[in-house]
Write a structure and sequence with these properties.
Bound molecules: cytidine-5'-triphosphate
CATH superfamily of the largest domain: CoaB-like
CATH architecture of the largest domain: 3-Layer(aba) Sandwich
Structural class: alpha/beta
Shape: elongated
Helix content: 25-40%
Distance between the termini: 32 Å
CATH class of the largest domain: Alpha Beta
CATH topology of the largest domain: Rossmann fold
Number of helices: 15
Radius of gyration: 25 Å
Strand content: 15-25%
Number of strands: 19
Length: 404
């Protein structure tokens, strides 16, 4: 993906051991298509050299407001005017305190103060010892910086360079990358609470065996990520899959269709959008044996009975909140043929305003797919693309329909 193509990011480094992560972050931003201009404070130079950052960003690094390379000798103006965002990573406690007071005694803080606030957002990735992070002075500064319009990103939790354990270390480069990508996505679902189901379900036969399907969960996880990027609060109810949850998404792991239904009924009480991307098993064994079913030596296989699982999508689509227009429901259909006809019929049968059709065998486990969106007005195709790109388009389509 080139999620940052065309973006110019000024990456500011302040003094902290997390500077070692800034090298990898710089690389990740460049790999995602951004151009990166590094600016370092003198303290940052104690932890990592401008040579490293220059090599990774492929641009010479600025460290001083007295840098004579700029014809007008105004690096703080020139560098900030061309940026799509300034990202300070790591941002030390001291640097936050400086920003708070509008101090400008070296290039990086000077540039932050001189930036056009409307067009150049400032993102801070704090990095410090847990006591420093928890200190009322720091927390006060974070709150004030937020109300001044800065985006203060989360901190990580865990082992710290000082040997202590707790909150305050800088997020990992990949987490920061996700946050920066999300920052630039249009906030078309701001204020919405989105519930998404994803993956297969697992219906136990006995303690060691069960029935499941080949759904990888990738589409549902991509939708959860796209909705979160679009500003929604997202709950992802996931069957057994080998995927990690997108950043900032609440994940609820379930196994069977019955578990999934229970979780969905609970979280749908607050949801404003429900998207059923899971491949829910249609049937489960009538009884799940308590003990492993053993061969009895007769050569006869055991007889398994099945009962139909509740239809989670249809159940929620019929709930008072969906019927009253408080929750917009979106279903999926995985078909093998006659997609438009099947998807159209399924939309009506499930009682949902929007149904997303795809060809099952062409999508399970794949990283890309193509979608057919069917609603009361007709259908539109979203051509083959990565699942994340499709998910972002689907989110935009849902937002557009909800706005009407
Ligand atoms: N779904 C659900 N609960 C079920 C079965 C399906 O919530 N027990 C949802 C899926 O998440 C999907 C949609 O319903 O959004 C379509 O499911 P699908 O299995 O393709 O349709 P079916 O109703 O099972 O129809 P058919 O088996 O005829 O294809």
């Amino acid at each position: 993906m080139n999620d940052l193509a065309g973006k110019h990011i000024v990456l500011g480094l302040t003094g902290g051991i997390a500077c070692y992560k800034a090298a990898e972050l710089c690389r990740a931003l460049v790999k995602e298509g951004a151009t990166v201009q590094v600016v370092m404070t003198e303290a940052a130079g104690q932890f990592i050299t401008p040579v490293t950052m220059q090599a990774l960003s492929n641009r010479s690094v600025y460290t001083s407001q007295w840098d004579g390379r700029e014809a007008n000798n105004m690096a703080h103006i020139n560098l900030s005017r061309e940026a799509d965002a300034i990202l300070i990573a790591p941002c030390s406690a001291d640097f936050m305190a400086k920003l708070l007071h509008g101090r400008a005694d070296e290039l990086l803080s000077l540039m932050c103060l001189a930036r056009p606030r409307e067009s150049v957002p400032l993102l801070l990735a704090p990095a410090m010892n847990r006591e420093m992070w928890a200190h009322p002075a720091t927390q006060r500064n974070v709150a004030q910086l937020r109300s001044d319009g800065c985006t203060v990103l989360d901190v990580g939790s865990g082992d710290q360079a000082c040997g202590e354990t707790g909150d305050g270390r800088m997020l990992e480069p990949n987490e920061l990358l996700q946050d920066v990508i999300a920052f630039f996505q249009p906030k078309v679902l701001a204020g919405q609470r989105v519930l998404v189901t994803a993956g297969p379900t697992y219906e136990a036969i006995d303690p060691v065996r069960g029935i499941t399907n080949l759904s990888s969960g990738k589409m549902g996880f991509a939708i959860a990520r796209a909705a979160q990027e679009a500003g929604a609060e997202v709950t992802l109810v996931a069957g057994p899959v080998a995927l990690s949850a997108p950043r900032g998404v609440r994940r609820v792991d379930v196994k069977s269709a019955s578990n999934m239904l229970a979780a969905c009924v609970e979280y749908a009480q607050a949801a404003t959008i429900f998207i059923a991307a899971a491949a829910v098993a249609d049937w489960r064994p009538t009884v799940a044996a308590d003990q492993k079913i053993k061969k009895d030596g007769s050569g006869q296989p055991p007889t398994l009975g099945f009962v139909e699982n509740a239809d989670i999508l249809a159940t929620l689509a019929q709930s008072a909140r969906a019927q009253g227009g408080e929750m917009f429901c979106v279903g999926f259909a995985a078909e093998s043929h006659d997609l438009l006809a099947h998807a159209t019929a399924k939309r009506i049968r499930k009682g949902v305003p929007l149904l997303v059709g795809n060809i099952g065998p062409a999508t399970f486990g794949q990283d890309d797919n193509a979608l057919l969106l069917v609603d009361a007005a007709g259908s539109i195709e979203i051509p083959r693309n990565s699942k994340l790109a499709l998910a972002r388009q689907l989110v935009a389509e849902i937002a557009r329909r909800m706005a009407h």
